[in-house]
Write a structure and sequence with these properties.
Largest sheet of chain B: 4 strands, parallel
Oligomer: heterodimer
Number of strands of chain A: 8
Radius of gyration of chain A: 21 Å
Structural class of chain A: alpha/beta
Number of strands of chain B: 10
Helix content of chain A: 40-55%
Strand content of chain A: 5-15%
Largest sheet of chain A: 4 strands, parallel
Number of helices of chain B: 17
Distance between the termini of chain A: 67 Å
Bound molecules: iron/sulfur cluster
């Protein structure tokens, strides 16, 4: 039997547009206005070679890639490392090798993340953290040390029993395991004071993101979904200090924008907590007459409120994760799914729910059934769309969305 | 390949197993309610000993699902679940169960009672959590999520054990509150002694695959014999059963009666079986004189053969270790090494991987496993894919062709794992 050829690419294979940014990322600081930042954000997000991380590396900075949905980014930051949110390869990345290694019936983000690793586009990273949010992300982590030798890789078991008194001590111990790797990676010892300082920075950052989300909820005409989305995406790609400066600069500008409400349906977006839809699809949602007043994108920036570091910042960080009232598909629900969705519709003051789920994302797909039952019982309209990273034909989705919006507006 | 020399048809153990399964479902049919409450549990890392000590009958919906598939009645359940909104990509076990629940729980082997308690042992499969959420929503009965950390190191770490043991203590308190009964620790110790006896018997059975020729079929036959170790563990019936099994295995060796008349290929099998086409798939192996000498799937309930045995002297600690040791709760590096160890210990010639379309827990990454086995370990490896539950995904001609090509090339090449230096 002829031995099958290795299924992995030669080490110099890459396939991506490459945006070059200055070492101090001054392009963002010097941007003339919000539109310029949003445009730049789009270019950064569409470039799977992580231009902001490459720029950070120009002065010797080290970066840790964090798979969705939650990693204690403050902890990574406290070692002087750049925590970066990984969000797959986007629509321009061709999957040539990852299918064979990982499997066919899987979400795009798992495959494109592996493809990025195999085509050396994750080279700017020195470490990776994969939280156990589902079996795919967990298994993906297991392939990384073999296929991308060198960087530290960590599988973070986030607790799923939120009622046990052991959850916080366990998660604290989990964070200690991560600390060992971060120490190795950064060459610095763990410093609780540095962690407390990072926690304060991230508290402020989350507060600004919360303002942005609140603005979208209360005055959806002032900030489009694509703007709010791209601003939030940047939050996982830039040094947080810089991102905070951008938010501080542009939030007041957004608040001051004249609100010119249009006849649109207030929708709650549910299901895109991990893999992200293409930017065109995000754009489309509001083009067809929706206001996406709340969503599940980029939960990392809104996981919990401010954390008081206290005597043991690591334990405080763990407690904040465990006690967060977040109810998404990759966290064992503290309530019933039905109650949860109705409450979220109420809080967002939404007229309808738009399920936007990644194809093959089982955690999201299974929730949709329970959510739909609760919505049916209350006669709350909903629509379910599935997406893949590389899907570019939206005619069908546009038609469905338009019909959906019309049926609500004219009823 | 059937006939008087095929142990499967000679077997007293197989008959006993069949009776045991039938009795189990008969008993279940009348269970439920306050007198004989029913707990639903998952196979991986299950807490059957504790739950039984509180008087619960235990239903394992995964096992009900595989029984439905093997009896060719899974498709209507799956279609019902799909009509409820569970898409094509959802695990077939989940769809079988949620469809069956919706249709009242009637199966050819008995009626499955509704749960009074849901115990979600989150050990190795996140779908467990989603599935049990759906059941909790449907039935509104108490749900306990038992969170078992993923194994990233060969041995359980102290913090993992502390976490799991605390949850076990809380689980016991929760059951005391739910049932109004107090917990009898001495009884748990007695039950665990039976568990251990069954586990030792099961391990002895599995280890007999090291014989050449192998007196057991460590995948297709072992799947039948998994039932007591997972479902009836802690009972004398289960422990006695493995004595019968091992006596029969000894007899097979004495009489020279093997799963295939002439053992040509010794294979390690990884992955969940295609239950809707179980016999057909098995025949594809038998046709080539291929016998599985070791397999990972029979270890989904626990890696007893790697030392994760219950210990009556350390009840909660050993239950914790056992729960951590479910096969799919092992990281890929651990899984890979285990399979390579099996190849070596059982002198296997090849590995066959059966990927499951709707089971990501087992399947995501199996392609890389194949690559690793071939290129780093020199072990001929075949990857096949269908589904464990949904008959629509088994393409017999295609699978047979691939198996024929694989075994033919092994034959031509004379390439075995031992030749590649993996076996001792
Ligand atoms: S998209 Fe869904 S299935 Fe894929 S890694 Fe994320 S949570 Fe898991
Ligand atoms: S391990 Fe696989 S087959 Fe079992 S419940 Fe999980 S997804 Fe389904």
């Amino acid at each position: 039997m002829a031995t099958p050829l290795p299924m992995y690419p030669p080490t110099d294979e890459t396939s991506a547009p490459r945006l070059e940014l200055a070492e101090d990322l001054r392009e963002f600081r010097d941007a003339a206005n919000l539109e310029a930042v949003v445009k730049l954000a789009r270019e950064v997000v569409e470039d799977p070679s992580y231009p902001t991380v490459r720029a950070w590396a120009l002065h010797g900075g080290k970066a840790v890639g964090c798979f969705p949905v939650y990693t204690p980014q403050e902890l990574i930051h406290s070692f002087g490392l750049l925590p970066v949110s990984l969000h797959g390869g986007g629509e321009h990345l061709e999957i040539s090798h990852a299918d064979a290694a990982l499997g066919s019936f899987l979400c795009s983000i798992s495959k494109s993340t592996l493809e990025l690793a195999l085509t050396r586009q994750l080279a700017p990273f020195q470490g990776f953290v994969f939280p156990y949010i589902c079996d795919v992300s967990r298994n993906l982590e297991g392939l990384f040390p073999r296929l991308l030798p060198g960087p530290e890789t960590h599988m973070l078991h986030l607790p799923q029993n939120f009622h046990t008194r052991a959850a916080v001590p366990f998660l604290t111990a989990e964070y200690r395991r991560l600390v060992v790797k971060l120490e190795r990676l950064s060459g610095r010892p763990y410093d609780p004071d540095a962690l407390a300082a990072s926690m304060r920075l991230f508290n402020t950052h989350r507060a600004r993101i919360a303002e942005l989300n609140a603005l979208k909820r209360t005055s959806p005409a002032k900030v489009s979904l694509i703007e709010s989305y791209l601003l939030r995406r940047l939050g996982g790609l830039l040094p947080r200090e810089l991102h905070l400066q951008l938010l501080d600069r542009f939030l007041p500008e957004l608040e001051r924008r004249p609100a010119r409400p249009k006849d649109a349906v207030r929708v709650l977006l549910v299901g895109s907590f991990c893999e992200q839809p293409t930017l065109d699809l995000v754009d489309l949602l509001e083009q067809v007459g929706c206001y996406a007043v709340d969503d599940e994108f980029l939960q990392i920036h809104r996981w919990h409120g401010p954390i008081e570091p206290g005597d043991d910042p690591l334990a405080s960080l763990a407690a904040a994760y465990v006690n967060a009232p977040i109810d998404i598909g990759v966290r064992a629900t503290p309530t019933t799914k039905g109650e949860a969705i109705l409450e979220r519709v109420r809080v967002a003051d939404a007229q309808a729910v738009l399920f936007l789920t990644a194809k093959f994302c089982e955690p999201a797909l299974e929730d949709v059934v329970l959510y739909r039952r609760a919505l049916d019982a209350q006669k709350i309209p909903y629509l379910h769309l599935e997406y893949e990273e590389r899907s570019t034909a939206y005619e069908q989705s546009r038609l469905q969305l338009e019909t959906f919006v019309e049926s609500i507006l004219f009823n | 390949m059937s006939g008087p020399t095929t142990p499967e048809f000679l077997a007293r153990a197989r008959d006993e197993q069949r009776d045991m399964v039938e009795q189990y479902y008969r008993d279940l049919a009348s269970a439920g309610g306050p007198k004989r409450p029913v707990a639903y549990m998952l196979v991986g890392g299950n807490l059957t000993e504790i739950v039984r000590a509180f008087g619960y009958e235990v239903v394992f919906p995964e096992i009900v699902a595989l029984n439905c598939a093997i009896k060719h009645v899974s498709l209507p359940n799956i279609l019902n679940a799909e009509s409820q909104g569970y898409g094509l990509d959802v695990c077939g076990y989940v769809k079988n169960d949620l469809g069956l629940q919706e249709m009242g729980g009637e199966t050819p082997f008995g009626k499955i009672p509704k749960p009074d308690l849901l115990v979600c042992s989150f050990s190795g499969c996140y779908v467990y959590v989603k599935w049990w959420e759906a059941l909790a929503e449907r039935y509104g009965v108490p749900l306990f999520v038992f969170d078992v950390p993923y194994m990233r190191d060969r041995a359980p770490q102290a913090e993992d054990l502390a976490y799991v043991v605390t949850q076990l203590e809380e689980f016991i308190a929760f059951l005391e509150k739910t049932t109004g009964r107090s917990f009898d620790r001495a009884e748990l110790t007695r039950v665990l002694a039976q568990s251990r006896r069954a586990e030792e018997g099961w391990v002895r059975y599995l280890r007999s695959g090291t014989h050449r020729p192998s007196p057991i079929e460590a995948y297709f036959e072992a799947v039948f014999y998994m039932f007591p170790i997972n479902v009836l563990r802690g009972t004398a019936t289960a422990a006695d059963f493995y004595e019968t099994v091992n006596a029969e295995v000894d007899e097979r060796i004495r009489l020279g009666m093997y799963p295939v008349p002439e053992e040509k290929y010794r294979v390690v099998v990884e992955g969940v079986p295609p239950y809707p086409s179980y016999r057909t798939f098995w025949d594809f192996f038998r046709n080539w004189g291929a016998v599985s000498v070791a397999a990972t799937y029979p270890k989904v309930g626990g890696l007893f053969d790697r030392g994760f045995l219950h210990d009556p002297a350390r009840p909660l600690e050993s239950i914790a270790e056992y729960s951590l040791g479910a096969y799919v709760n092992q990281s890929w590096p651990l899984r890979r090494e285990l399979i390579a160890d099996y190849v070596r210990e059982y002198s296997a010639d090849a590995v066959v991987i059966h990927g499951i379309k709707s089971c990501r827990s087992f399947t995501a990454g199996q392609g890389d496993l194949r690559d690793w086995l071939i290129h780093e370990k020199g072990v001929p490896t075949l990857y096949l894919e269908s589904d464990h539950e949904d008959p629509r995904y088994f393409a017999p001609a295609q699978i047979k062709n691939r198996m024929d090509a694989f075994f033919e090339s092994l034959e031509q090449r004379g390439a075995t794992a031992s030749a590649a230096g993996v076996a001792p």
